Amino acid sequence: MATVLFGGNPTPLAGKEVKVGDKAPDFSVVAKDLSEKHLSDFDGKIKILSIYPSIDTSVCATQNRKFNEAASSLKDDVVILSISMDLPFAQGRFCAAEGLEKVITLSDHRLADFGLKYGFLIEPLRLLARGTVVVDKDNVVRYVEYVHEVTTEPNYEAALSVAKSL
């Protein structure tokens, strides 16, 4: 079982850690309109999965702003899926208030299906750890970052560079 630091405290992650070269597991999450969404709904696209604990924290807000801004420099075949345990209403409120229209917010609150299949679930807190996963058009994982200290930002440039190279 992998661990990350959350405010300096070692915290175990539940689920199966994904690695570069793995077939990306399909997962079930909730969209802002409360419909069920799956990774497979984005087949044929390059997918940047931006994972974070809570939209109501400054680092998570920054992560969403930065990926939303970066989306304008990406090709049309790239989508940014912003995934947390937040309720879809909170994600929608934040994006509306911030004018973020390029990230697709998805909530893992119902089943923790994404968190468990990708190894990002901080089970004791029922939050997702921070990280980024890039999945190519054939649903192969091409980049993975589990941010070691959850309260710090991911390496945006590394993930974006991989996505742009695909």
From TrEMBL:
One of its GO terms (molecular function) is thioredoxin peroxidase activity. Its EC number is 1.11.1.24. It catalyses: a hydroperoxide + [thioredoxin]-dithiol = an alcohol + [thioredoxin]-disulfide + H2O. Residues 18-166 form the Thioredoxin domain. The keyword Disulfide bond applies. It comes from the Bacteria. Transmembrane segments: none annotated. SUPFAM superfamilies: Thioredoxin-like. The active site is at C60. The keyword Disulfide bond applies. Keywords: Antioxidant, Disulfide bond, Oxidoreductase, Peroxidase, Redox-active center. It is an enzyme of class 1 (oxidoreductase). InterPro entries: Redoxin (IPR013740), Thioredoxin-like_sf (IPR036249), Thioredoxin_domain (IPR013766), TPX (IPR002065), Tpx_CS (IPR018219), Tpx_Peroxidase_subfamily (IPR050455). Belongs to the peroxiredoxin family. Tpx subfamily. Thiol-specific peroxidase that catalyzes the reduction of hydrogen peroxide and organic hydroperoxides to water and alcohols, respectively. Plays a role in cell protection against oxidative stress by detoxifying peroxides. Homodimer. This is Thiol peroxidase. It comes from Microbacter margulisiae. The lineage of its organism: Bacteria, Pseudomonadati, Bacteroidota, Bacteroidia, Bacteroidales. The gene is tpx.
